[in-house]
Design a protein that fits this description.
The protein starts with a helix and ends with a helix. It contains 10 helices and no strands. Helix 1 crosses helix 4 and helix 6 crosses helix 7 (about 120-150). It has helices at about 5-45, 45-60, 65-75, 80-90, 90-105, 110-115, 120-150, 165-170, 180-210, 210-215. By secondary structure, it is mostly helical.
Length: about 220
């Protein structure tokens, strides 16, 4: 069976796996973004706190993804929980780091001007600092998403959702007539999803970042 014939016969299952893969990455990115930006807000004002946050989240990336999921299985079981926890932890570093860099890069004179017109600390953060720090934060989100697209494939090891199931089935049946088609379909599906997500982030950037800041 050719690759195109395989896609035609399995397109429904592949679409389902692709949707689950994209959904898992998207939901984990939302959680990682909220947590990562909050960590950045709390720590950017202190050198040691910022370094601690960056070091802690970078340490997570030194743990192999297969080992991370394997360690989580005895604690939270199989399926979605270990996938969500692992992906969220892996997605933190670029967001935390870029949040800290972006917030520290805000011109202090703008913050002083906002303080001078009576803005509270929260208002300065929401209306001045975060909007100006948004470009690097968005870049961190894009980097995290690209990483998680590939890492999410490992979730199949823990019976998690996504295109990794197609890849693992192909690897588990090496030598069969459709083994290569399964691995290729899962891999290409992840690449296509990564490109679609990245295109969406480019559009979000154009809609949310003023042209002067982009330049």
């Amino acid at each position: 069976m050719s690759f195109w014939e395989y896609l035609g016969n399995r397109h429904q299952q592949l679409l389902t796996d692709a949707y689950q893969h994209a959904s898992a990455v998207f939901q984990c990115m939302v959680v990682a973004t909220v947590i990562g930006v909050l960590i950045g807000i709390v720590t950017y004002g202190s050198d040691w706190a910022g370094s601690l946050a960056t070091t802690s989240t970078s340490t997570v990336l030194t743990i192999p993804s297969l080992a991370m999921i394997g360690l989580l299985i005895p604690i939270v079981g199989l399926g979605v929980p270990p996938t969500v926890i692992a992906l969220t932890l892996y997605g933190l570093l670029p967001i935390v780091r870029n949040s800290i860099v972006g917030l520290r890069g805000v011109d202090p004179s703008l913050v002083d001007a906002a303080r001078g017109i009576g803005m509270s600390r929260l208002m300065r953060l929401l209306r001045v600092e975060l909007p100006l720090a948004w470009p690097p934060i968005l870049t961190g989100i894009r980097v995290s998403t690209q990483m998680l697209m590939g890492i999410a494939a490992i979730a199949a090891y823990a019976s998690g959702p996504g295109l990794g199931n197609e890849i693992f089935r192909g690897i588990g049946s090496l030598g069969s007539k459709n083994a290569l088609n399964q691995v290729l379909a899962g891999t290409l599906g992840i690449i296509v999803l990564a490109l679609l997500f990245d295109a969406a982030y480019v559009l979000i950037g154009r809609l949310t970042i003023p042209r002067g800041i982009r330049v």
